[in-house]
Design goal:
It is built from four helices and no strands. It is mainly alpha-helical. It has one domain: Up-down Bundle (Four Helix Bundle (Hemerythrin (Met), subunit A)), CATH 1.20.120. Bound molecules: fe (ii) ion. Fe (ii) ion (FE2) binds next to helix 3 and helix 4. Fe (ii) ion binds next to helix 3 and helix 4.
């Protein structure tokens, strides 16, 4: 199963949408690498890339939320922090196992599903808030 980017996943903030596309792209690469039993180096490379990417991406989202005083910031940040912990835990599991079926299932069931659900619910709410806040400010400055 490969996850495709769909317009329904757009949160209508271009920079964050682009990061989500890359996030999905890299998770698909990881899924494929695990599924085909590619060399451990390849799985390990993608996982290391993802670890940095996830931290940068979450930091970017959290910075915007913090600047705009997003009311659910703490709740959203907790979801990110929990995911980072899950990712690190899963990284150890995947890198120490040769069970390709189990590894690819973990990537799909845990990482890919989390990201899709997180974007569809939590990030979309942030996107709507950002738009509302920016539009509100534009109105004030045009008065
Ligand atoms: Fe998020």
């Amino acid at each position: 199963m490969f996850v495709e980017w769909k317009d329904e996943l757009s949160i209508h903030i271009d920079e964050i949408d682009e990061q989500h596309k890359e996030f999905i792209n890299r998770l698909n690469m990881l899924f494929r690498a695990c599924q085909t039993g590619k060399a451990k180096e390849e799985v390990s490379d993608v996982m290391h890339f993802l670890e940095d990417y996830i931290l940068d991406h979450f930091f970017c989202e959290e910075t915007v939320q913090s600047i705009l005083k997003y009311p659910d910031f703490e709740k959203h940040k907790k979801q990110h922090d929990d995911f980072v912990e899950t990712f690190i835990d899963l990284k150890q599991k995947i890198l120490s196992s040769t069970d390709t079926e189990k590894n690819s299932k973990l990537v799909k069931d845990v990482l890919i599903n989390w990201l899709i659900e997180h974007i569809a619910a939590s990030d979309k709410a942030v996107g709507a808030f950002i738009k509302e806040t920016i539009d509100g400010r534009k109105k004030i400055t045009s008065l």
